[in-house]
Design goal:
There is one protein chain. This protein has helices at residues 7-20, 28-33, 60-63, 72-84, 96-108, 122-138, 162-166, 171-174, 207-219, 245-255, 308-312, 334-349, 352-367, 406-416, 438-456; strands spanning 39-43, 46-49, 54-57, 115-119, 149-153, 185-187, 223-228, 232-233, 239-240, 259-263, 287-290, 302-306, 376-382, 385-390, 419-420, 423-424, 427-430. It has 458 residues and is an alpha/beta fold. It folds into 2 domains: 37-67 and 353-456, Alpha-Beta Complex (Aspartate Aminotransferase, domain 1); 74-349, Aspartate Aminotransferase, domain 2, CATH 3.40.640.10. Strand 16 and strand 17 form a beta hairpin. The two termini are 29 Å apart.
């Protein structure tokens, strides 16, 4: 352990952290009872705290860091842009990095997504998509004005602003806010380990799709769009949909004249092994939300992409008020856009997606022993997105009581061993930077394995 600061500085920071900061998705009563972990630096796949201790970053600093910490190319892109201009509004003006990035995003996303609307985070990208979908139908023809509802999946997570929460489906996060939300139609998640329909895959023949079609068929006249996290439902517990599910959802949306919104905030930029998860089944949504990894994990940035048909519905005379009345002060920020351009350059230069294939197979192999642990119920992997579901009793799939805080105990044990991961309840998430070495990846998996073994057997 290397001392970076004098004792007074360290103690002051720890005191101020508890005195002034309110941390997101954190029970502050528990947090303030523990010694805080304060990060000061990052190097490659590691985070370094104020004491000089190094930790593997096992969740890419909440699923955002793509090429590791301290990539010189991205650092340089930000510094170079600062020398030009750090921000100018995109309301009625434009800027060079925003234009270049928009062109690049259109080139790398599924064909047909030709228009880019910037914002600053995943929640806002979703809010924009919902407003676009609603307003599109309002401005298409008088008979379509009744299309103002949305379909979303159980266990969906699309962000924390009120529109995004309205289409969310995780009771723990969303039930409290129900009086503030608009109503939606819910369809079953393809959660094969805990099927809400009481069936088993593959003998179920994806009956969850039949349930979705029933809702679409019944309510098609009033539904504007269906929103889905393609292939992997992230915050719901790393729920990986069976092959063919996404493609069939796309077909049903087209059949019943419902727009499809793909929330690729978590799954985009290589996380599932392809640049975007929609590519896994050749799906082209009507709207796509991207954020998190878009800037390589360096600066807040998001975008909502859509096609010409949706875009054209917003064109008209000034007096018609067809404008999309939405915007953010930092929309299209030049620093963030230049960081994103540098990140996309690294994808090409480092052949990131090609190099990832071997590491995905390596990770899959290293995860197999987890099923030998008696309290591991399920291991779900798609690319570099992994969820390890812990259970109190394997045969019955009984969950641990909340008060036991097993997921939290496991990640605290991992922290002692030099790894930072974060649970989703009792699902332990592994989502490292894409450029992590196989050596560090193996170490990461070993720490999680022994941490689960230590806690779940005690």
């Amino acid at each position: 352990m290397e001392q970076h600061r004098n004792t007074l500085d360290v103690e002051q920071l720890e005191q101020w952290d508890k005195q002034y900061l309110w941390h997101p998705f954190t029970q502050m009563k528990d947090y303030c009872d523990e010694k805080p972990l304060i990060i000061e630096k990052g190097e490659g796949s590691f985070l370094i705290d104020i004491y000089g201790n190094k930790y593997l970053d096992g969740v890419s600093s909440l699923w955002v860091t793509i090429h590791g910490h301290g990539r010189e190319e991205i650092n340089r892109a930000i510094i170079n842009q600062v020398k030009e201009i750090s921000h100018s509004t995109l309301l009625g003006l434009s800027n060079v990095p925003a234009i270049k990035l928009a062109k690049k995003l259109v080139e790398i996303t599924p064909d047909g997504l030709d228009k880019v609307f910037y914002s600053d985070g995943g929640s806002t990208a979703v809010e924009i998509a919902l407003k676009m979908a609603f307003q599109y139908w309002q401005q298409t023809s008088p008979i379509k004005k009744e299309k103002h509802k949305f379909i979303s999946l159980n266990l969906a997570y699309h962000g924390d602003t009120l529109g995004a929460v309205s289409v969310g489906g995780i009771d723990t996060f969303h039930t409290l806010y129900k009086p503030l939300l608009f109503s939606t139609y819910r369809v079953p998640s393809p959660y094969c380990y805990r099927c809400g329909l009481g069936k088993s895959y593959p003998s179920c023949n994806l009956d969850c799709l039949n349930q979705a079609e029933d809702v679409m068929k019944k309510h098609q006249q009033e539904v504007a769009a269906l929103i889905i996290e393609p292939v992997v439902q992230g915050a719901g517990g790393m729920i990986v949909s069976p092959p063919g599910y996404l493609k069939e959802i796309r077909r049903l949306c087209s059949q019943y004249n419902i727009l499809m919104i793909a929330d690729e905030v978590a799954t985009g930029f290589g996380r599932t092994g392809t640049m975007f998860a929609c590519e896994q089944e050749g799906v082209v949504p009507d709207l796509m939300c991207i954020a998190k990894g878009i800037s390589g994990g360096y600066l807040p940035l998001a975008a909502t992409l859509t096609n010409e048909e949706v875009y054209d519905a917003f064109l008209g005379e000034y007096r018609q008020l067809k404008t999309l009345f939405h915007g953010h002060s930092y929309t299209g920020n030049p620093l963030a856009c230049n960081a994103a351009l540098a990140s996309l350059d690294i994808f090409e230069k480092d052949c990131t997606l090609e190099e990832l294939k071997e590491k995905i197979c390596f990770l899959e192999e290293k995860l197999k022993p987890f099923l030998d642990l008696p309290h591991v119920g399920d291991v779900r992997q798609k690319g570099f997105m992994v969820g390890i579901e812990l259970v109190k009793e394997r045969d019955s799939k009984e969950s641990y009581p909340l008060e036991e805080k097993v997921g939290i105990k496991v990640i605290l044990e991992a922290r002692k061993r030099g790894l930072i991961v974060r649970p989703l309840g009792d699902v332990i998430v592994i989502m490292p930077p894409l450029n992590i070495s196989c050596e560090h990846l193996e170490r990461l998996v070993e720490i999680v394995f022994h941490s689960i073994k230590e806690i779940a057997s005690s």
